[in-house]
Each structure stands twice: as structure tokens, then as C-alpha cells.
Amino acid sequence: METATKSGKAITSILPARHPVTVWLVEDNHIFRHTMARVLGGVEGVECSQHFSNAEDALDALLGGAVPDVVLLDVELPGKSGIEAVSQIKAISPATRVVMLTVFDDHEKIFRSICAGASGYLLKTSPVERIVESVHEALAGGAPMTPRVAKSVLDMFARLSRPKHDYGVTRQEQKVLELMAQGLIKKEIADRLALSYHTVDTHLRNIYAKLHVNTRAGAVAKAFQERLF
């Protein structure tokens, strides 16, 4: 079965026909969101059942009992970021596959997304056929990525193969770093670790000092580079 796209090309359905695969879109760009919803909804075996302009509404829908097979999730969103939302989506619905769909291909966002539980990471410049294929690939347990993103992941593993340095990071500070990499803010880290906000802030200042960095992004990047997780 083939479905015509706006460009005139045909997308062949590659998904199981026994029941519709439900896909949600979380994207704040109105035009891109509705275009992708139409494309996905036109593919046999796929049902783009809901789409949202922010992560909060998607999480509310999940908490209300609706469970999609796949979520295509933007990274930069108003309010809660896509990276912050990934771990929360997986906590509510572990079987749901999350594929990041974004314009950002920098190392930090890719690594944080994957650590938070994303199954894949695609750029919005990807052909629509590739985005449709990513739904099937994620459901099959794969990790759909664009070539540039895959190269970034390989570069990460190359860096991780270097000897590990000891920065004197304590186990508690390591836990804080891990949650930072998942996109959690200070208050969320405090709640997750049953610590006070002040204690988490102290841990962060100690982490910055030990790693010789001045920002959250710098701490997360160095933690990956130096294999502190």
C-alpha cells in the first residue's frame, strides 16, 4: 500500500497491518506539526492519534490513560523541554518509544536525550520517508538516527575509550550529575534524591569546582567525556 505525500512521492507502509500503530507528535511549530500529522495519518497502519504544542499537555494525556506506541518529540519546547520530558514519558509508559525530532544535532542534546531514554534522534531535515521508517524501526527495538547523529554517538564512544580520570566526585554528586544529564532541574533532582534544594545546590557547586567548569552544560559534557557515569 502506498500513500502520496505533498511532494508527490509515495511512502510505502512498512508497519504491521494487524492494528494501527499510534503515534503522537509533540512539536511547537504549528506548520511542521500539522504537516507531519497529515503525512503520518496518511500511511496505512499508522494512526497519528494526538499532537501537542508542548510537553506538559502530552504528559497530562499520558497520565489520563492514553498510551501511544511512539512519540515523536521536539527538543526545544515552551515550558518543559523535550529532553526533560523523555524520562517522564518513559516513567509513565515504559513501552512507549520516544524518537527525538529536532533541528539540533549538538553532542550534548543527543547524549542527554539518549541517556534520558530516547530510542532515536532524527533531524527535521530528514526526508519524510525516513521519519515514517523511524516509527517502525523504534518499535522493532532499533535506534533510528541520521548519519550525522550516528557519527556523534560514535565520537562519544571513542572519547569514552580514553583512560578514566578521578575528579574526586562522590557517589551522591555522581547521582546529581546523572539526573542533570537527564534534563532534571534542581528542584526535581532534590525530590528524586530526597534532598533539600540547598543540598543539591551545594552538590552542584562542588561538582563545578571539581570538574573545573562553570555551567550545567559544561558539567554534563565533561561527565560524558570523562566517563563519570
Walkthrough of the structure:
- The protein folds into two domains: 15-146, Response regulator (Rossmann fold); 171-225, Arc Repressor Mutant, subunit A.
- The chain is 49% helix and 14% strand.
- It contains ten helices and seven strands.
- The chain has helices spanning 30-41, 55-63, 82-92, 107-116, 128-139, 147-160, 171-181, 186-193, 197-211, 216-225, and strands at residues 2-4, 10-12, 21-26, 46-52, 70-73, 97-102, 120-123.
- Helix 2 (55-63) runs parallel beside helix 3, helix 3 (82-92) packs parallel to helix 4 and helix 7 (171-181) crosses helix 10 (216-225).
- The longest helix is centred in the C-terminal third of the chain and has 15 residues, at 197-211.
